[in-house]
Design brief:
mainly alpha; MetI-like fold; 2 domains; 74% helix; flat
C-alpha cells in the first residue's frame, strides 16, 4: 500500500502543465458537444410556452415574453373525433411499448439461453440464418407483412404490432453474447443440486443478466415508442393511433401553429427521456460488460 501511494505521488509530481492544459481542452470540447446536443431540445421546450409569432420571429427570441401554459392544456384536450384524443394516443403508445418490450425480453431471453448453452442439431446454422435476417431491409418485408396481417384479419388490431414484435434477431444476438460470458461453473453447480434447465435459467442466468435484459428492454421500448411506418399501415381508426401517427395528423389540424406542434413533440419525447435517466446506469453497465466480455 505504501509503495502504491508513493508511485501515485511521483506520477502526480511528474505531470507537466501541458497535461493540465490538454485536460482542460478535452473537458471544454465535451462541454461544447453537450451544449450543441442539448440546445435544440432546450429551445423546443421553451417554444412550447411561446406564441407562434415568437417562434418564427427574426431575430429569434430565446425566452418567451409571456409563458403560455395553456398551450399544453389545448394540446392535451385535442379531439379529432371517433375516440381520437391525446390521452388515448398516449395510452396506446405506452401499452404497445410496454407489451412488446416485455414479451420480447421473455421470448428472446429463452431463445438466447438455448443458443448459448444447449446443444441441438442445426444450432449454429439456425443462429447464423437468424443473424442473416438482420441484413434484410425493412422495406423488403413491408408489403408481404401487410398481406399476411390482412389474411390473418389483424388489420386495425394491436395484435398486428404485438405478434411481429415477440422476437428480434438483434435482441437474441445481444442476450446470447451476454449469456455466453456468464461462468458455466455456476450452472454446473446448480445442475449438481438437481436443478432443471428452466430452474437454472430463472434462478441463475436471469439475475446475472439483469444489465443486458434491461438494455434490451429499454431499446425495444424506445423502438416501439418511436415506430411510425407499421402503426401507420396497420392501425386505421383514430382511437387506435399511436403518438407518432397522431402527431402527423395533429400537424395537419393545426397547420403552421408551431408552438402546439412542439407541445405534441414534447409529449412524445419526455417519457423516453425519463425512462433513460431512470435506467441509464443499467444500460451503460450492460453495454460495457457485453463489450468487455463479448
Amino acid at each position: 500500500m505504501v509503495g502504491e501511494s508513493m508511485k501515485t505521488k511521483k506520477r502526480k509530481a511528474q505531470r507537466t502543465p501541458g497535461y493540465y492544459i490538454s485536460l482542460v481542452l478535452r473537458y471544454l470540447v465535451l462541454i461544447l458537444i453537450a451544449a450543441i446536443s442539448i440546445t435544440p431540445f432546450f429551445l423546443a421546450t421553451l417554444g412550447t410556452f411561446k406564441t407562434n409569432a415568437e417562434i418564427i420571429a427574426y431575430p429569434p427570441k430565446v425566452m418567451p415574453e409571456n409563458w403560455l401554459y395553456e398551450n399544453w392544456t389545448k394540446v392535451w384536450n385535442t379531439d379529432i373525433g371517433s375516440g381520437g384524443t391525446f390521452p388515448r394516443w398516449l395510452f396506446n403508445t405506452a401499452f404497445l411499448s410496454v407489451t412488446v418490450a416485455s414479451l420480447q425480453v421473455i421470448c428472446c431471453s429463452m431463445a438466447a439461453y438455448a443458443f448459448a448453452r444447449l446443444d441441438f442439431p442445426g444450432k449454429n446454422t439456425t443462429f447464423n440464418f437468424m443473424l442473416a435476417t438482420m441484413m434484410i431491409p425493412g422495406a423488403v418485408t413491408l408489403i408481404p407483412a401487410y398481406v399476411l396481417m390482412t389474411k390473418l384479419q389483424l388489420i386495425n388490431s394491436f395484435w398486428s404490432l404485438i405478434l411481429p414484435g415477440l422476437v428480434s434477431a438483434g435482441s437474441i444476438f445481444t442476450l446470447t453474447s451476454f449469456f455466453r460470458s456468464i461462468p458455466i461453473d455456476l450452472e454446473e453447480a446448480a445442475r449438481i443440486d438437481g436443478a432443471t434447465y428452466m430452474q437454472i435459467f430463472r434462478t441463475v442466468i436471469l439475475p446475472l443478466a439483469r444489465p443486458a435484459i434491461l438494455t434490451v428492454l429499454i431499446l425495444q421500448f424506445q423502438s416501439m415508442w418511436n415506430s411510425f411506418m407499421q402503426p401507420l399501415l396497420y392501425l386505421n381508426s383514430p382511437d387506435k393511433y399511436v403518438l407518432n401517427v397522431a402527431l402527423s395528423i395533429f400537424q395537419q389540424q393545426y397547420k403552421s401553429q408551431w408552438n402546439l406542434t412542439l407541445v405534441g413533440a414534447m409529449f412524445n419525447a419526455i417519457p423516453i427521456l425519463i425512462l433513460f435517466f431512470i435506467f441509464s446506469r443499467y444500460y451503460i453497465e450492460g453495454v460495457a460488460y457485453a463489450g468487455i466480455k463479448g
